[in-house]
Amino acid sequence: MKSFKMARTVGRMASAWLALAAGIACAQAYPARPVRIIVPYGVGTATDTAARALAQKLSEVWGKGVSVEAIPGAGGVVGSTTLAKATPDGYTLGVVAGAHAVNAALYHNLPYDSLKDFKPVMNIGFTPLMIVCNPQLPVHDLKDLIAQAKAAPNKFSYGSGGTGSAPHLAMEYFVDMAGIRMTHAPYKNLGQLGSDLMSGQIDLSMTAVSTLLSNVKAGKVRALGVTGAKRSPLLPETPAIAEVVPGYEVKVWIGMIAPAGTPDAITKKIYEDGAAALRSPEVTKILLNQAIETEPQPAGPFWEHVTDEVARWTRIVNKAGVKVE
Which of 41, 6, 4 has its CA nearest to residue 190? Predict the structure, then answer.
């Protein structure tokens, strides 16, 4: 009996070593052919730009083509579904953003599980949002905005890129923490939102820094606060909302994921090569121009953050009663 147990133990150890050796050999040979990165949002978005900058650098490092395919639709659901169903061999990857966690909070009938059906590879970076207002609005700063909003609930209207979008929920989070009420105006067209903001049809907006940065610098809209824990290097004169509402912080993350079941050795290699690429001056510059601060993180801490985001946005969605059709 002892010899049988010992033989079984030795057999298990041998199987583990063989699996490890196979994984190492697989990673050493990876990639042996071109790699595809799916972005579940439109071409030209900050996430798409980040994916293409990273893909270009990885192509140089690997000596294999790395293409980016934008598959937009349903706020990221269409492209994410395609990724979840892809073969988990490391040759189909995805670059997603905060909407991935938001969708998990908004929808109860997604065709995939936002956490279980994907394998984390790495965090790429973070980008803050900002609260902007019409330059003629008689509000001096965030303190003044909060004071006026408390004195007259729903006096101010704000626009976002749609009900349930990351900017919408970030503003709902601000409204909740500040103890105020404002009227939400959802937009399907960000260009129209910007026009209405500048013409005074709406008072405020929560938007990505990169979306209206040029208009802020031109004085067409006024930035009141950024959502990061500290000020953005692109808007050093604009305070962080946390300076007025302690504890408030929203950073829209951008990260790389793969279909569940992708070998550990491959995702580890992608992280190591991807992190080095993100630290290169040319990639850092491209991303900073999109207000993305590079912050490569390995799978563990990256997925912990995403899991926490799903829980946070679920609380905000339920408390604010956000519903999408």
Answer: 41
Q: Across residues 244-271, what is the average pLDDT?
A: 97
The answer to whether the CB of 179 falls within 8 A of the CB of 245 is no
Cα atoms found within 13 Å of the Cα of residue 224, Cβ hemisphere only: 25
DSSP annotation of 63 reads: T
**What is the CA 277 to chain-centroid distance, rounded?**
19
**Alpha helices (H) along the chain:** 2-29, 46-62, 77-84, 99-106, 142-151, 166-178, 190-199, 209-217, 264-278, 281-288, 299-320
The string over 168-206, giving b where at least 16 C-beta atoms fall within 10 Å of a residue's C-beta and e elsewhere, is: bbbbbbbbbebebebebbebeebeebbebbbeeebbbbb
> Looking at this protein, which amino acid is placed at residue 216?
V
Residue whose pair of structure tokens reads 């994921």 in the numeric block: 257
123 pLDDT exceeds 90? yes
Q: At what angle do helices 264-278 and 46-62 cross, to 10 degrees?
A: 100
For residue 324, the model assigns a pLDDT of 80
pTM of the model: 0.85
The SS3 of residue 279 is: coil
CA distance 171 to 183: 11
**Bond from prior residue into 298 cis (ω within 30 degrees of 0):** no
